[in-house]
Design goal:
With 76 residues, the protein is α+β, with helices and mostly antiparallel strands. It contains three helices and three strands. A three-stranded mixed sheet has the order 1-2-3. A hairpin with a 2-residue loop joins β1 and β2. The longest helix has 14 residues. It is globular, with a radius of gyration of 12 Å. The chain starts with a helix and ends with a strand.
Length: 76
């Protein structure tokens, strides 16, 4: 899942070198932390959070194969 989020985020932003994705297990679920440059936050979140929701939907669909719960957390 980490690689999927990283590929999507790098395609969206102007500064792909600043994209950092961390993955950790927490309470039986996987938490994926996405960090981008402050200038790119709007591109990753989108108007009314549409891009962020789409990223989460893609990750959720991909995680159904592995039968695990995945949370995507977007930070500046």
């Amino acid at each position: 899942m980490k690689e999927l989020v990283e590929v999507i985020a790098k395609a969206l932003v102007d500064h792909p070198e600043d994209v950092v994705v961390n993955e950790r297990r927490e309470d039986g679920q996987t938490v994926i932390e996405l960090r981008v440059a402050q200038a790119d936050m709007g591109k990753v979140i989108g108007k009314q959070g549409r891009i962020a929701k789409a990223i989460r939907a893609v990750v959720k669909a991909a995680s159904t194969k592995t039968d695990e719960r995945v949370i995507v957390d977007i930070d500046a």
